[in-house]
Design brief:
With 408 residues, the protein is an all-beta fold. Helix content is 1%, strand content 45%. It is built from 1 helix and 29 strands.
Amino acid sequence: MKNVLFLWLVASSSALPQPAPKFTVQVVDSQISIGYGLAIGDVDGDRKPDILLADQKEIVWYKNPGGKPLVNGTAGWKRYVMAANLTPQDNVCIAARDLNGDGRVEVAVGAGWNPSETSDSTKSGAVFYLIRPQDPTQPWEPVRLPHEVTTHRMRWAKVGKDSYQLVVVPLHGLGNKNGEGKGVRIWGYEFPKNVRGTWKQHLVDSTLHLTHNFEVWEDGNTTGMIVASKEGGQIFRWQKNKWQPVDDESASNALDILSKGVSGIGEIRRMDNGQRIATIQPMHGNLLQIESGFYSFREPRKPVDEKEITLITDIFNQGHALVCGDFLGLGSDQIVAGWRNPNAEGKVGVRLFKQKEPGNMEGYPLDDSVNMACEDMQAADLDGDGDLDLIASGRSTHNVLIYWNQRK
């Protein structure tokens, strides 16, 4: 049977406190509508990562000004509209990655956000590829692709030396009610030479329900993804020119053990090159946990009875953002998580969790008041100093903030 460790942590729990992580906050935009999704990448080819945002009605990007971060005010990050009013409903997600090696990202977006409509694809869901103009500060041309109802999340995945797919994960399957019915059809759209032409589609899976978020990674010459759903976390692998499920006990839904039958995973990320996974459970949930013994395509997985589930905290209300990385230069990953509704203390915010000692993680509030009702979050080295910074978008706080890492 799996080992379960309950660790209820607060920021001041150590009798001998270690130096706290230091981040300073910059406001990039204080007048967004919802801030559904973020992506990071070089839009204009100046070798500096820019910020891209799927806002309620507009797709925008913010130009990285370079130089020393300007913490006070919004100066420096100039805003450009890429597309607007793509559908009568809201935009909901965005994916950006350099696919052809020219140093500039290709961009796709999801719109038509109407999660209650699961039967009529003309009223729910939309997928667009945005064609770059000669001047990227001008409007981009949207190319509509086939879609499922309730388009929700997307990522670019490298599936060969020069081959990429846009993986799109809806929230519901066709005709679903209350998370039941046909499984969600997850598709990989093969990036074509002619983006205005036909995009070949590869079915990833059609068995899961309430597929909320996912992560794609490259492990050597193999590409994998893990999808968070009502059923738990399911791993898929691109192999022999198709997506195949990977049977791995470490991706199973562990929440039944921890909370007496409440099921489903909302956010899911790999840690430490796949040795562990971090999750927020259930969907829009309050629990942050780690599960060890995760799957690596290059190493044997652990036996089931050697896996551990560690509950880190239960302070969230609608936990909705999760990133993992070595922000502090410790040689192992830390977790940063955000939530969007006021919790029992009336707070929304962003919190970093780092290992205090083996089996013990300590939480540090990076923004723990009313400043960031976190809808989405990304990690990237925005200023080229070798440290990961954090970028977050706020739902009810209507803002985009950078948390500059001051480790050095």
